[in-house]
Amino acid sequence: MSDPIIYPCFLGPYGENNDLLEKLVVEFLRDHVYWRRNLHPEDPPAIPTRAADGPAYRDFEARLRRELHSLSATLKRSVPFHSPRYLGHMVSDLLLPGLAAQILTLPYNPNNVSAEAAPVTIDLEIKVGLQLARMLGFVDDPALPNCAFGHLTSGGTVANYQGLRLALALKAFPVALRAIAPPGLAIADDDWSAFNLTPTAAIARYGQWLHWLQGQPVDQRPHW
Question: Per the confidence metrics, is the pTM higher than 0.70?
Answer without folding.
Answer: yes
